[in-house]
Automatic annotation (TrEMBL):
One of its GO terms (biological process) is immune response. Keywords: Cytokine, Membrane, Transmembrane, Transmembrane helix. It holds the Pfam family TNF. Residues 120-223 form the THD domain. This is THD domain-containing protein.
Amino acid sequence: MDGKEERADGRQSYSMLMELDAIVRSHRTLRRELCFSRLVIVMLLITCMVVCGVMYIQQVPGTKNREIMSTEKTNETSRAFQTAGQEDETVDAEIPLVASLTLEHRHYSGKANLTWKGHHTHLNTTLRDSGESLIIPQDGKYRLSLLITYWEKDPQEGQCLLVHEITKYSDSYITPMTILSVHETVYKTSTWYKSVFTEVIQVFNEGDRVKVQSENADLIDSAGQPGTKNLLTVQFLSRLQDF
């Protein structure tokens, strides 16, 4: 490109304004690289979108299948628990498990067999011999729990040996069998109270009889609430064929 300018002396001078080829080529190279970079970025974005879409499509059916399997497993577990609960309810309905007996309010003298009456009965037990004998309703293993409360007002100082026992009477034995014997020593200084709780597990046959005998029956405290002081509990544990 030619440039023309007037000088002070009236002469004219021309200057040539030329772009260097190197600069032009550099600009063109930069434009090509910029276009190529943009194209690569667009292609990468499209590729990422395609990959994410494919992965999402593959995961959705698997998630649904897992949810279905989890739901089916939950339903099976629920049905199993319901079935087990129904079976337990059936067993409980068929076999009442516990009978609680309280001591008859009466005056005893010295050694005596204790007499009982029904308190909370959920086991088909019966009482005979004026309440002294508890009849076992069926063959099986039982837990017998016994609570007896003794007391004495203004006693003479010294020691007192409290003794009571549970005896089993059965047609399978010629003589009665003591299945629980309790011995407790009390030191008497003033009015005293003593509650003695014991348990025993024993196998019985249907029709066996159970009696409780105390050598200190005259010291038994039978006043007030009988279920909190003197209690005989019979709990059915299992049938004979279960062990």
